Amino acid sequence: MKKNQKFALGIDLGGTNIKLGIVSELGKIVSKVEVKTEAHLGPKAVIKNIEKGIDEILKNKKIKLIGIGIGAPGIVTIKKGIVKSPPNLPGWDEIPLGSIIKKKYGIKVNVENDANAAAIGEMIFGAGKKYSSFIMVTLGTGVGGGIIYNGKLYRGEIGGAGEIGHISINPNGPRCNCGSTGCIEAYAGNHYLKESVKKDLVNHPSSKIWELIENDLQKVSPRIIQMAAELGDVYAKEIIFDLGVNLGIAFSSLSNVLDISTFIIGGGVAGFGKPLLTSIKTTMISRVLTPLKSRINIIPAKLKNEAGILGASSLVFYNT
Amino acid sequence: MKKNQKFALGIDLGGTNIKLGIVSELGKIVSKVEVKTEAHLGPKAVIKNIEKGIDEILKNKKIKLIGIGIGAPGIVTIKKGIVKSPPNLPGWDEIPLGSIIKKKYGIKVNVENDANAAAIGEMIFGAGKKYSSFIMVTLGTGVGGGIIYNGKLYRGEIGGAGEIGHISINPNGPRCNCGSTGCIEAYAGNHYLKESVKKDLVNHPSSKIWELIENDLQKVSPRIIQMAAELGDVYAKEIIFDLGVNLGIAFSSLSNVLDISTFIIGGGVAGFGKPLLTSIKTTMISRVLTPLKSRINIIPAKLKNEAGILGASSLVFYNT
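Predict the joint structure of the above. Result:
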């Protein structure tokens, strides 16, 4: 290990688990701990669990941390690290999580929305290193986003920016959980994608997906669709292609407005890999304004499973 | 006139006319000149015409200018004031307009894209004064936009940002001049709007629009639609309402991504006034994410006919 390296503690606060990791300034995780969130017990219990995780990961360690970074769902007010109404943490109205942790451990704490943290993570440690501006897209349960512009996170008026999952590509499209219609999340979100394939699969009786799920529609998943596509299944390939088209339509609007040409694609659904990225890129080149066409650049995220911890810890290095 | 006021020369470089005005730091135009652009004669002739206009407006004036601001079509590279491939100025590949004018007149010159200049104009002189972040929308031949974030113009990677007219609200929607489909400009741009009403009017034989255009479809215009609406014509009111819905759909996506809640609406089509703004606002409130709903604020632009000159001159005060 390089001497005199700096370390940060990254905390990925999820609805089910809290993942903690001590991360070097080079993006290497040197220690990891995971605890249950127990979100249903309310904020006090969740904070206790965060502290339990911190105590556990710091036990018997000589590493001196330069700070703690926390990636949290919901809208975060940077100044006091206030987490506001995160969708999957019931009872959290406005909790000054940053101040609470800072007070207890006497160390600098940076809290940020998890999608924004993922964007900063890619900028500091990942595929975004060489771009001064890019859009980080996380294709998971939802479609999350973070906007990096001239080396800085674009946060918006109250820190709610980057909700690219809620770009509507068709007002007559499927209803989205947010209450609107045709949001790209209602096409590309893990759950929506599964549901739409489950409904549509009967129209494709010869698809290899049937075999892979052993005729049990409950087993449909992005992983299964990917496996079928890799086996040459035409329908599975179509699903991935169409997903790329829909994402490309949404991203084209975004590129036109923001004049940002690089998109970094991460999250589980991004596992579709090159066929998905190619479909996104082809769609965008056909739709964006002329000055953007030659610049469109769609690349995979570099931080994979550990994106949450790395993104959270990157907040500390970003703010140093 | 207040003593010791500062003055700038604003130049609005359009495809047909070049409008020049000497503007005080309070946004008062004290002198105005207009010359023909003669765009078909190419950049050299156009620049000669700009200089002719400058010479004319400065003749016999004792006013000391602190700078010249130019609003130009196309993408502008700030540093040398390079105007790149403006759509309605043939032959302009990459013209360092800023440097040329600066060299000739020995005075600071700021060049900016005209839609961006309009946004800065509203920020410095107009309805945007009291907002640190807003989106300026110009509803004219096209749908132009400028993004002000934390008191600064958001320019994007190469200065092309703010193309909100090319947010697609429906991939199966009307074809846009840009080559894409369903762009909001293809619904709300002056020309598209007229064409769609001209086609649809036969389905509304009792509309008052028929009277106002004396049965001559060529006379359909936003002004006529507005007059019919003011006379209580149901179809004309519907057109305005639907336009607001479509704009509201596009702006909702934008608000979700940028976390900006104030939209300032200017340009000729904005003459529809309150019914249009109300329709935009109602649509947005029903579609944006929860943290935005209570903040949505749709207001008319303050700079009207002189927006071009005022926007151009505001570049000087913005950059002081």
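Chain B has eleven helices and 13 strands.
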